[in-house]
Amino acid sequence: MAVFTPLSDAQVAAFLDTFDVGRFTALQGVAGGTENSTFFVTTDRRKLVLTLFEQGEHEELPFFVDLLDYLAEHRLPVPGTVHDREGVALHSLADKPALLFPRLPGRYPESPNIAQCRALGDTLGHMHVVSQHFPGHRPNPRDLHWLRVKHHKVLTYISPSDQTLMKNEVDEFESAFSQHAELPQGAIHGDLFRDNTLFDGDRLGGIIDFYNGCTGELLFDLAIVVNDWASDADGRLNPERYDALLCAYQARRPLTQDERELWPLMLRMTALRYWLSRLLVVYVDPPAHDLTPHDPERFRTILHARINHGALPIPEVNR
Question: What is the C-alpha separation between 297 and 283, in angstroms, rounded?
Answer without folding.
Answer: 13
